[in-house]
């Protein structure tokens, strides 16, 4: 399987080069393995069950900037069937300082950390996953750029992911996720057209 990205500091093209960012080491481009929706880029760690998803979603004008990342977190929880009480929790929401971001076009940027108890492939087994969400708001393009870093914490022995446990070769870190957010750069606004 081809690894995405070259050297550690080299930006990786996203969405046909319309965006780019420095992606974490050992990232495999999932679009080479299966069909990915046009509004997503998905990378998986080659040795752990971690994944990184970049998604272009509709800008939610009715949601205040400081609430938008929580809105998307709850939307993901709904998709993951993790909306029952006790199956999801937000632990922090912070604003990302714009001067630290390459994506100068964004009106505001946020990072949320939370957990969800999710099952893969509709299995009964549920895994506890820490989600780090980055949200870069682009109201002028009617787009929110949502970046999700899925970092499984406890894997049920009955999960199809159980085989990945114990093979944690240099898992991705929150710092690598933050670097991705900080280096995300827009090259072609036509992407949002």
UniProtKB/TrEMBL annotation:
InterPro entries: Mog1, Mog1/PsbP_a/b/a-sand. The keyword Cell wall biogenesis/degradation does not apply. It comes from the Eukaryota. GO terms for cellular component: nucleus. The keyword Transport applies. Keywords: Guanine-nucleotide releasing factor, Protein transport, Transport. GO terms for biological process: heart contraction; protein import into nucleus; regulation of membrane depolarization. Belongs to the MOG1 family. This is Ran guanine nucleotide release factor. It holds the Pfam family Mog1. GO terms for molecular function: guanyl-nucleotide exchange factor activity; small GTPase binding; sodium channel regulator activity; transmembrane transporter binding.
């Amino acid at each position: 399987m081809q690894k995405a990205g070259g050297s550690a500091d080299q930006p990786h093209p996203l969405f046909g080069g319309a965006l780019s960012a420095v992606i974490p080491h050992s990232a495999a481009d999932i679009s080479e393995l299966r069909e990915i929706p046009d509004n997503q880029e998905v990378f998986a760690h080659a040795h752990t069950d971690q994944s990184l998803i970049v998604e272009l979603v509709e800008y939610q004008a009715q949601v205040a900037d400081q609430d938008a990342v929580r809105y998307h977190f709850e939307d993901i929880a709904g998709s993951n069937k993790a909306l029952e009480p006790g199956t999801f929790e937000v632990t922090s929401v912070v604003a990302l300082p714009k001067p630290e971001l390459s994506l100068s076009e964004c009106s505001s940027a946020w990072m949320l950390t939370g957990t969800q108890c999710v099952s893969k492939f509709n299995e009964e087994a549920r895994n506890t996953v820490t989600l780090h969400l980055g949200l870069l708001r682009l109201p002028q393009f009617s787009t929110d750029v949502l970046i999700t870093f899925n970092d499984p914490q406890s894997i049920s022995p009955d999960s199809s992911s159980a085989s990945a446990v114990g093979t944690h070769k240099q898992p991705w870190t929150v710092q690598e996720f933050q670097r991705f957010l900080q280096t995300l750069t827009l090259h072609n606004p036509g992407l949002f057209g």
